[in-house]
Design brief:
The protein is about 20% helix and about 30% strand. It is of the alpha/beta class. It has a domain of about 180 residues: Metallo-beta-lactamase, Chain A (4-Layer Sandwich), CATH 3.60.15. α4 runs antiparallel to α5.
């Protein structure tokens, strides 16, 4: 199935699209939050509305296409005020040109053709700056600005249950991207801030790769990032596009891809 749904904890479900990107449905007594909306290849709206009858807010951790592509299925969407949807618009043509079934571990939905992929990603209905608390009824999410993967990346903290939703800011994958317009020091500061929260967290819920992760992942990634020196970055080629990067430990940190 294009969407795989798993119960992670009471009131928390992971919805994985195409075996590639995770979204999360967190349900309170009054409303629900969907953390990111995936590619928009399948109808994530139907999936989510089949899981909850409560009003749904989408909170995007950042503006990349695989995290905002399903936003049009929902009435209320939140994105950081510094974040642009330009990358999402630019990525759709590249997807149409390059994507193939073999890039995904599960079959495309019936009738889907990559050459016809043209998601409509509306401007968010609300912008956040950081510090906002989203009340779901009996549980709440705090918006944490964590610029790094993109300039407007955020994480979402559910303090009472010790959950942290990290989008692409923290993942257990070999490649770690540093976004356009983000200085290395800002990226390092965001990861160090999250690492300082590790003792108060149990589950890290990323946008890709293994999920959930132990809180120790925060400290490991931050320590590797601390050792980065931009003068030591080397030219790299990822998926036919040029960038520069540096290997530290088991991670490769790379700068925003260039055409």
């Amino acid at each position: 199935m294009w969407f795989e749904e798993s119960l992670i904890a009471p009131g928390l479900r992971r919805i994985t699209e195409g075996g590639f990107v995770h979204t999360y449905l967190l349900e309170g007594s009054e409303r629900a939050v969907l953390v990111d909306s995936g590619f928009g290849i399948g109808d994530i709206g139907a999936v989510v509305k089949g899981l909850t009858a409560k009003p749904i807010l989408v909170v995007n951790t950042h503006g990349h296409l695989d995290h905002v592509g399903g936003n049009s299925h929902f009435d209320v969407t939140l994105l950081h005020q510094a974040e642009s949807l330009k990358d999402a618009a630019d990525s759709a043509p590249r997807f149409r040109e390059a994507a193939a079934q073999e890039d995904f571990p599960v079959p495309f939905p019936e009738g889907f053709k990559p050459s016809q992929y043209a998601p409509q990603v509306p401007e968010p209905t609300h912008r956040v700056a950081g510090g906002e608390v989203i009340d779901l009824g009996g549980r709440a999410l705090e918006v944490l600005p964590t610029p790094g993967h993109t300039i407007g990346s955020i994480c979402l903290l559910e303090e009472s249950n010790r959950f942290l939703f990290t989008g692409d800011t923290v993942m257990d994958r070999p490649l770690q991207g540093i976004g356009e317009g983000v200085s290395l020091s800002v990226y390092q500061d965001s990861l160090q801030m999250l690492a300082g929260m590790a003792p108060d967290l149990d589950l890290i819920l990323p946008g890709h790769g293994p999920s959930p992760l132990p809180a120790a992942t925060l400290s490991e990634l931050a320590e590797c990032a601390r050792q980065l020196d931009q003068s030591a970055f080397c030219d790299m080629n990822l998926s036919g596009r040029k960038t520069a990067g540096m290997n530290v430990g088991r991670f490769v940190f790379f700068l925003a891809l260039r055409r």
